[in-house]
Amino acid sequence: MKTKEETKQYMKEYNIKNRERLREVKREWTKNNPEITKQSRKKYYEKVKNTEKYLSRHNKNAKVYKKRYPEKVKAQMQSYHKIKIEYKQLCEGCDDNLAVERHHPDYSEPLNVRLLCKDCHRIEHRKEELIINAWYTSEA
Questions:
Q1: Global pTM?
Q2: Which stretches in the chain have pLDDT values below 70?
Q3: DSSP bridge pairs for 114
Q4: How far is the C-alpha of 111 from the C-alpha of 89, rounded, in Å?
């Protein structure tokens, strides 16, 4: 019978050796169990959100984002203060869910925004990424 240390070492080596396969299994499980995944992530976030480590990393990332994308931050702040999302306003994308986010198609026009639900906003950004990626791959 293996000692605790031997078992630990074996598992470490196994995980390194089978990293890609284990990642694929985890991705598949996450995809097939969205509710459990969502609950688990929410529980984890509630646990760590006020810890010193999380807050310091969050603040550092916010500062980096502000330095890297000043025009985005400026447009976001202007639209946040000048364009209010009315109570029970529906999403402009699906007309089904409540609008909770502002989407800038062009950051040079900070007050030109679409009011979207989280899902439609995510879809909008994915569309933009696909267009950009298609453009880059056609250039090559």
A1: 0.58
A2: 135-136, 138-140
A3: 103
A4: 18
The identity of residue 116, as a single letter, is L
Query: Which residue type, as a one-letter code, is found at position 89?
Result: Q
Task: Take residue 42 and report the two structure tokens written for it.
Answer: 């929410």
Whole-angstrom distance, CA of residue 119 vs CA of residue 114: 13
Q: How far apart are CA 140 and CA 81, in angstroms?
A: 42
112-124: per-residue pLDDT in tens? 999 999 999 999 9
* DSSP state at residue 89: P
Cα atoms found within 13 Å of the Cα of residue 43, Cβ hemisphere only? 6
| 19-32 vs 34-48: helix crossing angle, rounded to 10 | 100
Inter-residue contact 111 to 78 (CB < 8 Å): yes
**What is the C-alpha separation between 47 and 11, in angstroms, rounded?**
27
For residue 62, give the amino acid letter.
A
Nearest-10 Cα torsion for 127, 133, 135, 139: -170
Type of residue found at 139: E
